[in-house]
């Protein structure tokens, strides 16, 4: 199945974001998955302030990862991100129904800069 995870990490340190994506990617690859795309969206203001691990955040560093894997691998990635203290929030969705013709329409991850 094709999955997509959007994560929000603590702002200010790109190296932390790289480590988070690396650890999630290693889980996917170790379990036979394939990483399709990773995008670094950068730091943006959160829609509303979020308290996580006794810290209140108003900005977050957004990243997105699209990958093929089984449901157990997807759950393991979500659980890993949920317990990581560097992550403010993360959410994942299944794209399509798993057939090649339906998943092929999800191409590159789009991102439009707002000015």
From TrEMBL:
Keywords on record: Mitochondrion, Ribonucleoprotein, Ribosomal protein
UniProt record similarity statement: Belongs to the bacterial ribosomal protein bS6 family.
Assigned GO CC terms: mitochondrial small ribosomal subunit
InterPro entries: Ribosomal_bS6, Ribosomal_bS6_sf, Transl_elong_EF1B/ribsomal_bS6
UniProt keyword Ribosomal protein, yes or no: yes
Chief location bin: mitochondrion
Organism taxonomic ancestry: Eukaryota, Fungi, Dikarya, Ascomycota, Pezizomycotina
Species assigned in the record: Immersiella caudata
Protein known as: Small ribosomal subunit protein bS6m
